[in-house]
Amino acid sequence: MKKIVVIVAFFAFLIIELNAQQNLLPRVNARWDYQFTRIDSRNPPGHGNPATYITTYGTYQNQGDSLFNGKVNYSLGGNLYFIEDSNRVFLGSLSNKKLFMDFNLNLNDSFRLYVNTSVCQTGVVDFTVTQKDSVLMGGRMRKQMVLRSNTNCRPSKALRWIEGLGDFNHGGIRPDYTSDCVSTNDTRLNCFYDNGVVVYGLSCSVTGIPDLESNLFQLYPNPAQNELKFKGEFSKLEYHIFSIEGKLVLTDIFTK
């Protein structure tokens, strides 16, 4: 049975007690398996012919760390590294990184992606934070943010940052979103492993119990005023509500 603890601050707002501060991306023993699908340029659609798609597969995984300019850079293979700084993740080469995730943002805040001008003439894609809450994945609650773009040049899907995983909607790790600006392209996460355990995935090669997309559990809004909503699919969920002083106010079990 899953358990969750919620702290209620009377005369103020609801505060969701998640767990101790977690790394925004795993630094050791993690792996992201992803796939990228695009139209085959050798057989483009037209004249009544349907499009032919090509799917390629790739993997990012922790490869150790390096000290550069006084900061620890965590390798994901090749010349791809990330650093964490003040609740943000920067991703790129050792000497040139771009902001990948920023968990300091609040609802309606803006976030800008930089892409190749060959696909997007302006070279930038602006997003707005439309959702900020928490999701149950891999046996623990994780911060989650969803960002959407209203510009003409945009990735085909919203950004969906999940603490300890990355951009869920774009393969987990996405150093360059340029190809995602093409609406017929699609990048998705197939499997995510943390310390040898499958946190998310279908038909993954390591024994474990995946949290499938349909089984995610959400609390929102976070923080909240007056009302706290629960969303997800589960058989039983035990929860405890405490006052800000630590007094137990309510305990119960959700059943479906």
Instruction: Report the sheet-strand fraction.
Output: over 45%
Please report the total strand number as a whole number: 20
Radius of gyration (Å): 20 Å
What structural category characterises the helix and strand content? mainly beta
Which regions have little confidence, pLDDT < 50, spanning 5+ residues?
1-20, 207-215
Main sheet summary: 7 strands, antiparallel
First-to-last CA distance: 13 Å
- Assign a percent range to the helix content: under 10%
State the helix count.
0
Tally of structural domains: 1
Secondary-structure element pattern, one letter each: EEEEEEEEEEEEEEEEEEEE
Mean pLDDT, all residues = 79
Shape: globular
Architecture overview:
- By secondary structure, the chain is mainly β.
- It has one domain.
- It is built from no helices and 20 strands.
- It has strands at about 1-10, 15, 30-40, 55-60, 65-70, 70-75, 80-85, 90, 95-100, 110-115, 125-135, 140-150, 160, 165, 185-195, 195-200, 215-220, 230, 235-245, 250-255.
- It is globular.
- The two termini are about 15 Å apart.
- About 25% of the residues are buried.
- Mean pLDDT is about 80; it is low at about 1-20 and about 205-215.
How would you briefly describe this protein structure?
With 256 residues, the protein is mainly β. The chain is 0% helix and 49% strand.
